[in-house]
Amino acid sequence: MFVTILLSKLRAYRRYRETLRELSGLTDRELDDIGLSRSEIDAIAHRSAVA
């Protein structure tokens, strides 16, 4: 049980970091093309991890 919860949290953290890294690597122009601003990246990464 504890291991399952721990692995779930680890996967969510990895998803968060991957999303954060990928979105942060985009230029402001690329972010604008997909309708995002740089200030939204953290919130979007967090939502992707808990989804």
Summary?
With 51 residues, the chain is mainly alpha-helical.
Q: Approximately how much beta-strand content do the residues carry? A: under 5%
Shape: elongated
The overall strand count is: 0
Q: Write the element-wise H/E pattern from the N-terminal end onward.
A: HHH
Q: What's the Cα radius of gyration?
A: 13 Å
Helix content range: over 70%
Largest sheet entry: none
Class by helix and strand content?
mainly alpha
Runs with pLDDT <50, length 5+?
none
Number of continuous helical runs? 3
Spatial gap, N to C terminus = 21 Å
Roughly what is the average pLDDT, rounded to an integer? Answer: 96
| Count of the separate structural domains | 1
